[in-house]
Amino acid sequence: MKRITAYISGVVQGVGFRYFTRKVAKEMGVKGYVMNLSDGRVYIVAEGSEEQLEKFISTVRQGPLHAIVKGIEISEGEATGEFEDFKIRY
């Protein structure tokens, strides 16, 4: 199992990006959370297999209809297993 942290920049707040990300994560069996940051980016912590996370990031990169993803900064590490599901944090 792997863990990724990702900072998503662009038009990603106020367009349903967190809800989209949670839906995709739940469909793919990815665990973790997503939250808005005060600087306009979205922050994601996700855990799953390498294959799950590759598919997850590929789909998240597209975003929901009105989102415009301009950049993604990703860091990888070992999963901690601390998450039971995927949530939106506020």
From TrEMBL:
Annotated catalytic residues: R18, N36
Coiled coil regions in record: none
Keywords linked to the UniProt accession: Hydrolase
Superkingdom of origin: Archaea
EC number(s) reported in the record: 3.6.1.7
Domain Acylphosphatase-like: 3-90
Catalysed reactions listed for this entry: an acyl phosphate + H2O = a carboxylate + phosphate + H(+)
Alphabetical list of InterPro entries matching this protein: Acylphosphatase, Acylphosphatase-like_dom, Acylphosphatase-like_dom_sf, Acylphosphatase_CS
Enzyme class: hydrolase
Gene Ontology molecular function: any one: acylphosphatase activity
The keyword Cell division is annotated on this UniProt entry: no
Gene3D superfamilies linked to this entry: 3.30.70.100
Family: Belongs to the acylphosphatase family.
Protein name: Acylphosphatase
Protein's organism: Archaeoglobus veneficus (strain DSM 11195 / SNP6)
